[in-house]
């Protein structure tokens, strides 16, 4: 299948590692011009070089961007437009908020999670829409969590704001369809990333067991009996954001090896 991504302008946020980096790599393999961002310039530069080396695609650039800063978001999108003339694909991604229960968090914690995991997505979408509407096409993928289908214990902040992403995406899918702009939400299950490693470590400490025990127990709860790999997740995102997808919009999909049992 021709995904029709050759030369397309792609922006991927939070792409210095983990799912963002894996997704950017898959776009680069398809010949897209990929602009990655995160807060850490050293990690971004390393990721850029890794992506170029592994994909053979030199059209990879980066911009330092704290997605909780609206001026940074404006600068990021403007760089993509200056570089490629437009933005064809936006991959919204952000690090997860802290784990914990309701009593663990203050108003400030809630505000920070809102700005990182929902408001940042809204702002980035706002910035790319003029280009997409002008060309009457575009793809937006919001990366969330499997909590978009089934809440996760001790992750109340994530459960709350990831659900908000689904509401945002569904509403926008209706508003943007006349402009041929497709928007979907993709939630990872237990994918082998630093974020999941951190959550496993915290759970192991609270239970007084080894991380390996936590991982083994978690793997047994997954029908496929293993954690997913970042590239497995990324390939799903790339398809939904490609020319191969012309009719799927407003959907919330989990990539989880069958873990979530909710319909």
UniProtKB/TrEMBL annotation:
Pfam families noted in UniProt: adh_short_C2 (PF13561)
GO molecular function: oxidoreductase activity
Presence of the UniProt keyword Nucleotide-binding in the record: no
InterPro entries in the cross-refs: NAD(P)-bd_dom_sf, SDR, SDR_fam
GO BP: bile acid metabolic process
Residue ranges that the Swiss-Prot or TrEMBL entry lists as coiled coil: none
Alphabetical UniProt keywords: Oxidoreductase
Gene3D superfamilies referenced in this protein's UniProt entry, alphabetically: NAD(P)-binding Rossmann-like Domain
Classification via CDD domains: BKR_like_SDR_like
Family of this protein: Belongs to the short-chain dehydrogenases/reductases (SDR) family.
Name of the featured protein: Short-chain dehydrogenase
Native source species: Halobacillus andaensis
């Amino acid at each position: 299948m021709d995904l029709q991504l050759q030369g397309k302008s792609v922006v991927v946020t939070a792409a210095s590692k983990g799912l963002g980096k894996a997704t950017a790599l898959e776009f680069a393999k398809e010949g897209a011009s990929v602009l990655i961002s995160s807060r850490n310039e050293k990690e971004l530069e390393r990721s850029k070089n890794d992506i170029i080396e592994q994909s053979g695609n030199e059209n990879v650039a980066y911009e330092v961007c704290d997605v909780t800063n609206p001026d940074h978001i404006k600068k990021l999108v403007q760089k993509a437009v200056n570089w490629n003339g437009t933005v064809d694909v936006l991959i919204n991604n952000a690090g997860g908020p802290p784990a914990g229960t309701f009593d663990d968090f203050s108003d400030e914690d809630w505000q920070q999670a809102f700005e990182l995991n929902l408001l940042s997505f809204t702002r980035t979408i706002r910035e790319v829409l003029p280009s997409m509407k002008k060309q009457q096409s575009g793809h937006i993928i919001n990366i969330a969590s499997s909590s978009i289908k089934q809440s996760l214990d001790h992750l109340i902040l994530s459960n709350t704001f990831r659900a908000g992403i689904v509401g945002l995406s569904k509403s926008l899918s209706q508003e943007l369809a006349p402009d041929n702009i497709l928007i979907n939400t993709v939630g990872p299950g237990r994918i082998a990333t630093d974020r999941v490693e951190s959550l496993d470590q915290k759970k192991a400490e609270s239970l007084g067991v080894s991380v390996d025990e936590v991982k083994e127990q978690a793997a047994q709860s997954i029908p496929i009996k293993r954690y997913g790999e970042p590239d497995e997740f990324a390939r799903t995102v790339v398809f939904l954001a490609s020319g191969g997808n012309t009719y799927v919009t407003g959907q919330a999909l989990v990539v989880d090896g069958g873990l979530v049992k909710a319909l």
